[in-house]
Structure formats: C-alpha cells, structure tokens
Write a structure and sequence with these properties.
This protein has about 250 residues and is mainly α. It contains eleven helices and five strands; from the N terminus they run H-H-H-H-H-H-H-E-E-H-E-H-H-E-E-H. The strands form two sheets. A three-stranded antiparallel beta sheet has the order 3-5-4. The longest helix has 24 residues. The radius of gyration is 21 Å and the shape is elongated. The two termini are about 30 Å apart.
Length: about 250
C-alpha cells in the first residue's frame, strides 16, 4: 500500500500539512543519522504544529495559516479537554497529554544534560522519535478516517527514505559507493523505496546482467531474514530486520 501525504492527511490545510511532514521527517532523518540533539530540538517544533492542528480541529476545523506556539504550552494543551465531547477522546485528551512530555524533553531536559553521569541524548531522541511516530499515526487515523494498523502503515510510507549513497538518474537508481557489496546494495535500494521491488529491477539497478546469479544473493538475504523473496513472482520486500541492518550499519 502506498499512500501519499495529500490523501493521508487530506483534511488538513496544505500549509499545516507541509509543516507537519517537514518536521516529522527532520526528526526521523536526524535520528537515523545519529544527530541526537537535533532530533530532540525538532521535537519541540513538531509539538507546536500538532497542537495547532488539534486546536484548529477542535475549533470547528478553523485552522491557522501557520502553526503557532501557545504562550503556556502545558496549560494550552490541558485546555483542549474543554472541547465538546462530540470530538474524539484522542483529539481532546490523549494527543494533548502526549504532547506535554514530548515538549518537555526539549524545554526541561535541556538536550545537553550538562553534569549528568550518563549521556541521555540518545535515549531522549529515541523517545522523541517513537512519540512523534505515534502522534503521526493518530493524526492519520483521525484525518484519514482509518484503523490503527492502516494508520501505522501510512506513517511508515510517509517517512523520508533519503539515502546519501543512492543516485536516481532517469529510470535507474545507482549505488554511488563502488565498494558496496551486492547484498548491501540490495538492502539500500529496498530501503530507499516504499513497498516491494522486483528482482529484475534490482538486478538492473545493480548492473547485474545474469539474473540467475543475482537471485542467489537474494536467496541468501532471504535465508538471513533480511528480506522476503518470492521467487515465483520475483517480488522482494525488505524485512524489519533488514531495515534495522541498513539504519544501524549502512547509513552514516
């Protein structure tokens, strides 16, 4: 399933939708590239955008042109509970309550943790990442009117999959690092796109002229549970274990 942002969050004004996706992708990109403090700082701006969306929704879909920071963030979030009960509990209560601790990571934890015995930046950034993903799923569920499982899949599809070593030119995609193995190149190509790819397209992008030889590489990746390879259809999916391999070993 591939769902674009316009359909996933179609009931939001384009300007707010754009702000939301930009900040969400900053969080995921900074986390993926190990910039823990940057990931945490972006979490604060993300909270302000989500607050503006929910406040506008609870005000009869009267949205601001751009996200605004309320003067007292915690009090403003708590005030959303006063909205009519015709609105969902998620919009009135759950999302506002989740926003407060996420915002506090930026404002109260200080992201620098000067004097602390243990560097908690990675831990805090992980909290920011997963909380932001949950909030995005809730927003998709509310504004796309779908179930939780589908909303979570949509959020996965909206994540920026920029890979620095990949170059798209015309109808082909190339791995720019010549030292990359076929197995690693396969994982990078699968990670960079949403949804499955065919073994023949992968072989073409990796400049493998003999499909039978390349299929043996796919078989090894399949056996290692890094991909799911359906030989009968030639369809290749990257597994959660494969995604973890890319994020922890292959990306900067």
């Amino acid at each position: 399933m591939k769902v674009d942002s316009a359909s996933a969050l179609g009931n939001l004004p384009p300007s707010l939708r754009s702000e939301l996706l930009e900040e969400f992708n900053k969080i995921t990109r900074n986390y993926r590239e190990g910039r823990w403090e940057a990931s945490e700082l972006n979490g604060g701006r993300f909270c302000e955008i989500v607050y503006s969306i929910i406040a506008g929704h609870l005000d009869g879909d009267n949205y601001p042109d751009k996200a605004k920071k309320p003067s007292r963030f915690k009090d403003a979030c708590e005030g959303l509970s006063n909205a009519p009960t015709t609105y969902s509990e998620s919009a009135r209560l759950t999302i506002p309550r989740v926003l407060v601790p996420l915002y506090d990571v930026r404002n109260r934890r200080g992201v620098g943790h000067v004097g602390g015995e243990v560097d908690a930046n990675h831990m805090d950034a992980t909290f920011v990442l997963h909380t932001a993903q949950w909030l995005m799923a809730e927003l998709v569920r509310i504004f796309h009117k779908t179930d939780i499982a589908t909303a979570s899949e949509v959020v996965k599809n909206l994540i920026d999959r920029t890979v620095p070593t990949i170059w798209k030119v015309g109808e082909v995609t190339r791995i720019l690092d010549p030292s990359t193995t076929l197995a690693d190149g396969t994982l990078l190509l699968l990670y960079s796109e949403i949804g499955p790819q065919s073994d023949r397209v992968l072989a073409k992008n990796l400049e493998q002229n003999t499909i039978a030889n390349y299929r043996r590489v796919l078989d090894r990746l399949h056996k290692a549970k890094l991909i799911e390879y359906e030989r009968s259809t030639g369809t290749v999916h990257i597994s959660p274990l494969g995604e973890k391999e890319v994020e922890e070993r292959l990306l900067p």
